[in-house]
Amino acid sequence: MTRLFGIRVLIVVTVALGIDYVVWRWLFSVNWSAWWIAVPLVVVETYSLIDCMLFGLTMWKFKERPEPGPPLPDVTVDVFITTYNEPIDLVMGTALAAKAIHYPHRTWVLDDGARPEMRTAAEADGIGYITRSDEWVGHSRHAKAGNLNNALGATDGEFILILDADQVPKPTILDRTLAYFADPTVALVQTQQFFINVPEQDPLGSQAPLFYGPIQQGKDGWNAAFFCGSNAVLRREAMMQMGVRGYVKEVEGSIRKALRAADQVLTKARKRRGLTPGEATAIDRVSYAVVFANGQLSRGELLAEITFDFQVAVDDATREVVSADLAELEADLAEIDRLSGSSGRHRALLVDDAEVEALARRDWSPLGALESVRALVKTIDVDRFDEAQPVMPMATISVTEDMATAMRLHSHGWKTVYHHESLADGLAPEDLSTMLTQRLRWAQGTMQVMMRENPLVQKGLSIPQKLMYFATMWSYLSGFAALVYIAAPILYLCFGVLPVHAFSIDFFIRLIPFLVCNQLLFVVIARGIRTWRGMQYSLALFPVWIKAFTTAFGNVFFGKSLGFAVTPKTKQEWSPQWALIRPQLIAMVLLFISCIVGAVRMFTGHAAVSSTLINIAWVGFDLLLLGAVITAARYRGFVAHEPSEKGVSV
Amino acid sequence: MIFDVEYPQEGAAVITANGRLNMVAAPRLRELISTTVKDKGCTRVVVDLADTEFIDSSGLGALIAGLKTARTAGGDLRIARPQEQITTVLELTNMHRVLRSYPSVAESLG
What we know:
The complex is a heterodimer. In chain A, α19 runs antiparallel to α20 (609-626). Chain A has a seven-stranded mixed β-sheet, sandwiched between helices. Chain A contains 21 helices and ten strands. Chain A is of the alpha/beta class. The two termini of chain A are 23 Å apart. Chain A is globular. By secondary structure, chain B is α/β, with parallel strands linked by helices. Chain B has one domain: STAS domain (Transcription Regulator spoIIAA, 2-Layer Sandwich), CATH 3.30.750. Chain B contains four helices and six strands. In chain B, α1 packs parallel to α2. Chains A and B meet through α7 and α9 of A and α1 and α2 of B.
């Protein structure tokens, strides 16, 4: 309790000093004559202050949970191991460890790669094997979320432990986590993720000890512990409830939208050149059905009935039109027969009622040629024709299904728990390329959720919960801030452009105490865990964060592809990967050159000594942070006999 | 959970669900509706819930999956005679805005 009190005092002091500094910056020290760099700098400083405040809020309710009690007795558990392209041996290693979990359960390999050899291997060891059902053919697969949803439909355990293929569980994982579900409103227990193939100095920044520790424990205090996709236990009922609610919401939304847009679609279709009389009639009949459906909707009738009546009306209409067309065709053929004198040569073309029925089926009807109208008709239904499964328990709005799913759970009043214990041995990426792909995917997913379901406007979330989600999203915007933090000292050293009035006593008397307190807060919270790598990467991966933002923006608002790639889990052929960090290398060269130019300008009397030295120190700090990518590009992968192995158990 | 199927009309089937329609029974109901629609050709399916004492979200999920199967085949799925617990769950999940509960099997067939 005293420690928490100390942390809170530090938070208050840090935030107060930060506000004092930033307010002073805005009001008294912006060099408006160089506004084009001065304003961006003060904006990103404000960004950093908000980041710091959100961190403070996270830590305010830092929660260290006591030992969990005994696991719930006699509940059914399914253990899911998700895989796509990982080596069979790796998956089987995890699967066998999962099978050996003490608490009674069933183990399943969820193979999205549908590999026969994977099935053989799993079944040989008595492990369940699940791959996508036939329903998924021709539908969006929704990556891992789709894989999990498919498996939820094929199993029936009350609880589900989700494991990535490279997370080897300990036998006690269920014994340690099932107790939390005694509270019937707990939907999810997330445990720590810890990687065993990472050396002490963690060149790729894999461990994220600040996140799987204080940050999750802080979020937990606000009932906002995040779901991280693996090493987590879920309550099936909670997931299914999200799926059913999501279904109702989707169906209502899409039907209303389709009915609103119907007029426009039909008017456009009517204007098409070369419409056959049959097609024109069909469009008219669909129009009538739309008007009728709108009337039903405004009277508050149920969606199943509105859409059923609508579909029946459209089917009837198209059937009539097809029959009329065929009758005409038959008459024409009879005429041809009569004129040519032959009899019955074309009889084979004639069709019976059953075939009229078949032709009238939506795809073959006169609407068949009118793609837009057909799509409209299909949308005005409750079957979510565009999805393989109408019910999607795991959210599919983002490539990081976990965050979106947890947010939905929270907004419907469910609780989540963070259990701070390493209950699985994970494997982290061992090369820069894989690591960059993975970080990009996380950042893209987070951005997608922020743009599609902004937590700040989600009903049902408490204000702290909203801010806990927002904090994570906010921190991913740091790429833009990094650009300014890199550019500002270069501009001064090379061209003498000063974004502040002066680097004066006034300036430092406000900035230094804030920075010192901020660092102190980190030290107290981290309690000896290494946070330096994480700090480096939040600046050093600026191209990744920017790319994540722009691609997610293009995806959400313009429907562009994310260029999504599954994180490769096998080791890639090694060579120094300089090409992957070109933007960082360019930034480092520019920073270095600017130091030389700055020094020359100082010695020739073109620049003030104090400002130059301060900017050189600033550049030095930038270079120290960016330096992480150099270590990463040269990293050759984990060697098991390194002395780092003492870090294995936590 | 015991399921029973009757065929009162051409192209129609009435499934009686006796017991608890929970996560264990849900996959079986889904399978049953699927065979009724696809193999038996009964595209109009009524699920009679008079003897269903309990439903959870997985049970609802099975009904929705059945609705999709029936609609895709050009038919429909309807529910009849739900108990109070079921009505509550339908309201809790907003499913009552999608699916009407018919007071009798005869009406749901109409």
